[in-house]
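Model it.
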Amino acid sequence: MPGDCAALKQRLEELGSCVVAFSGGTDSAFLLDCAGEVLGDKVAAVTVFAPYTLKRDIRRAGGIAEALRVSHLNVDIPLPEALRYNPRNRCYICKSEMFTLIRREASVLGAGHVLDGTVTDDDEAARPGMRALKEQKILSPLCECGFSKTDVIDQLNKRGRKTWIHSPDSCLLTRLPFGREVIAEELARIEIAEEYLLSEGIDPVRVRSDGTTARIEAGRECRRLFFPEERMDKIAGQLKQFGFRHVSLDLDGYRTGGVDD
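Modeled.
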C-alpha cells in the first residue's frame, strides 16, 4: 500500500512543533515540505556540515529550505576524533554526534521533537546509523505512515518538486576503505572528481580512493558514457590533474559498499 498522506498530516499535527534533520536528500525534503505545510513557523530545518559532508548536499539543502521559506540552521562540526581512522561503525558514530547536536538546537528553539526522513525500505542492516535514531528517540513519521522511497518520489512529482528528486548520496567517508586515516585533502580531491564526473552526465557515480588511485563506479546505464577511447583519456587526464596517480573504471558499476569489495 502507498504511504498515507492523511495519516502523515495527522501525525505532524499531533507533534505541534519540530526540527527536521535536513540532509537535502529526497526523503527529508518531502518531510520538510509536509511539515512546513502543516506546522508553518513551528518547524525548522537543521543541517549538520562535517568535513566529510558533500558540499552539493549542503547547497541543495539551502536551496530547498529557501524555496519553502522554512527557518534553516547550518551547524558546522569538526571531524570527530572517533572517526579519524574511518572505523566500521562510522555511520553510528556520525549519527550519534549529529543527532546530539540537532537535539541541542531543537531545545534552544523550543521545538518538541526531532524528525528524520527514514522510509519503510531503508534497511537497518545497510544503514547501521539507524540505531542512533532509536537511542536518541528521533521520530521517523514517513516510515510510521508507510512511505517508501517510491511513494516519496511519486508525491514530489505530484507537488511539482521534480528537481528535488536525485540519486541517493552518502558521505565522503564511504569512498575510503575502513581503517584509513581521514585526510581533508583527500576528501576534497574525491569530491572535486565526483563533481567533474557529474558535470559530464555520469550520475550516479562514486570515486573510491586509497590515496593515489581513483576507482570510478558509475551507474550501470552510465558505463557506456566512458567510450569512445578519447573520452576515457579526457577523464583520466582530468582526474590526474586533481592529484590522482592512477584512474580506473570499475566494470561492475556503482553499488553500495563498493569501496570494501
